[in-house]
Design goal:
326 residues; 13 helices; ABC transporter involved in vitamin B12 uptake, BtuC; disordered N terminus; mainly alpha; single chain; globular; two-stranded antiparallel ribbon
Length: 326
């Protein structure tokens, strides 16, 4: 008997849901860029674009660390990052005397401080069973109080030239801020995608019971995640101090919420186990571009909060709907 039926070519299964989940944040960034270019001709000014990238660097550094703790799940977040940023800035100003010779040892102290704050957060959450929101909020307030005791409410000192270069300089045509962010982002991508720690972070965020049965050291991974967040916040604080050039008790104020917003916009699930650094950086760019556009259009500063809050709600709602339907 002769077969007359012809094999039909395989059909591509492409759905709006899959496209949105993979590329929605990038599409929105592109649309925002086009819209900003149309409504404000100044937006495409090279100096303005450079300012956007410089401002995105510090928030991006903090948000990378925030991504780690949110990926772990269990309501993970870090509200202490802004306090860490401000504290390392005043430590640097108070102890270098504006001299490059003291930069490296003081910078090392600042990074260790950030890691220790993350360690305290992690131990409170894993050993004392304090919810991440309350643990990091309490640590944030304690660090603020210690900072004001240390500075007596009036920060003094100056930053060494090398820190100013790291915050405002260029290596050829590329700002040092972008190089710093790119290096940190590359390291974070490698850790999350190519190491045992990264695999365990995704596994714990995906299903903590399965991860426990697989023999993962849950408490250790969670604690290390918060230590990474503290480390990233310290780096961001040093960069931002070099960028603004003045010692201030409130350097980085508001970055705790902006970093969480960037992570959520970037598609990382608060439930954990899904998302990544690349989406977070796109979320950072969206936030900074919105801030920039509000300034260029001379709109009240309150507008940026309304717009940002609305976008966060829409993004979270869309991701929740698509996760439920899948």
């Amino acid at each position: 008997m002769e077969l007359s039926a012809k094999a039909s070519p395989p059909k591509l299964s492409i759905s709006f849901r899959s496209i949105f989940e993979r590329y929605g944040i990038y599409i929105f960034l592109g649309l925002l860029f086009i819209t900003a270019s149309v409504v404000s001709p100044q937006f495409l000014n090279p100096q303005n674009l450079k300012d956007i990238l410089n401002q995105a660097a510090a928030l991006g550094m903090v948000a990378i660390g925030q991504t780690f703790v949110i990926l772990i799940g269990g309501g993970g977040l870090d509200l202490s990052v802004a306090s860490v940023m401000a504290t390392v800035a005043v430590i640097m100003a108070h102890n270098t005397g504006g001299q490059d010779a003291f930069f490296l040892p003081v910078a090392a102290i600042c990074l260790v401080f950030g890691i220790l704050v993350g360690l305290v957060n992690g131990l409170l959450i894993t050993k004392r069973k304090v919810q991440p929101f309350m643990a990091t909020l309490g640590v944030m307030i304690i660090v603020q109080g210690l900072r004001f005791l240390y500075t007596k409410g009036a920060p003094k000192g100056g930053f060494p030239p090398i820190l100013r270069f790291l915050g405002t300089g260029d290596v050829g045509p590329i700002p040092t801020s972008i190089l710093s962010l790119a290096i940190l982002m590359l390291l974070a991508v490698i850790v999350l995608n190519k190491t045992t720690l990264g695999r365990q972070i995704y596994a714990i965020g995906g299903n903590i019971e399965t991860a426990y049965l697989s023999g993962y050291r849950i408490h250790l991974v969670i604690t290390v995640g918060y230590m990474i967040s503290g480390f990233c916040a310290a780096i961001a604080g040093l960069y931002l101090a070099g960028y603004v050039g003045i010692s201030d008790n409130w350097v980085g104020r508001g970055y705790e919420l902006d970093s969480i917003a960037a992570v959520v916009m970037g598609g990382t699930s608060f439930a954990g186990g899904k998302g990544g650094v690349m989406g977070t950086i796109v979320g950072v760019l969206i936030i900074i571009m919105l801030y920039n556009l509000v300034l260029l259009l001379h709109l009240p500063v309150q507008v940026q909060y309304i717009v940002k809050g609305s976008i966060i709600i829409l993004a979270a709602s869309f991701y929740a709907v698509f996760r439920k339907s899948s």
